[in-house]
């Protein structure tokens, strides 16, 4: 495997939060980055501008990750622009919280469409395109172990991602492509902070021995390693949470 220069990464959900931090970090590592966003064109283009201002190369492409036709078109454009694909970071996701008895089934279906079907669709396209020496990085959550009330449906959708990743790693036997899942703990993103009061945020920040929320850059550091030099980590779920029990 060569260095990160001339490598190409697709980052879904790359316009905000952890996805954006991952896109910016991979660009800083020397990879060309394709940012796939659902609907926020302005934020996606802002991320591209930040990367280009720092000397990197990036492009933003709109696609619903659960729509196989749109995802295929996004991968086509990535290959046309950069000549190939080496890394896919499956960061797109939504989180809707409510007790099991109260969550609407429409919300359950919406969340699973993005978090499970979306991950599956992007992974399908990734395995058809990604070059030897590449990496697929999916997203779970530390909530699969924390068992917090109101998180049942979200945790279930991410537990599915944890099940998919090591199986896919084995299915890629002999192709020199790694597949791992990253499971962040509470991280200071809009996805996490939305709808939470200050007391809740402070309580969750103190759940880990570091007594702070994670930063998107903390997660991006691990993604950078998995997307480049960490070739002997494969089929794993890596909990990136400051030590929360």
Structure description:
With 245 residues, this protein is an alpha/beta fold. The chain has a single domain (8-240), classed as Rossmann fold. It is 46% helix and 15% strand. It has helices at residues 17-28, 41-53, 68-82, 105-129, 143-146, 152-171, 190-193, 198-205, 216-226; strands at 8-12, 32-37, 58-62, 87-90, 135-139, 178-184, 237-240. It has a seven-stranded parallel β-sheet with strand order 3-2-1-4-5-6-7, with helices on both faces. Strand 4, helix 4 (105-129) and strand 5 (135-139) form a beta-alpha-beta unit.
Concise description?
Helices cover 46% and strands 15% of the residues. With 245 residues, the protein is α/β, with parallel strands linked by helices.
Can you identify the CATH class?
Alpha Beta
Q: What would CATH call the homologous superfamily?
A: NAD(P)-binding Rossmann-like Domain
Largest sheet: 7 strands, parallel
Mean pLDDT, rounded to whole units? 93
Order of strands across the main sheet? 3-2-1-4-5-6-7
CATH architecture term:
3-Layer(aba) Sandwich
Proportion of residues in extended strands: 5-15%
Write the layout of secondary structure elements.
Layout: E1 8-12, H1 17-28, E2 32-37, H2 41-53, E3 58-62, H3 68-82, E4 87-90, H4 105-129, E5 135-139, H5 143-146, H6 152-171, E6 178-184, H7 190-193, H8 198-205, H9 216-226, E7 237-240
Parallel strand pairs: 1-2, 1-4, 2-3, 4-5, 5-6, 6-7
Helix pairs in contact: 1-2, 1-9, 3-4, 4-6
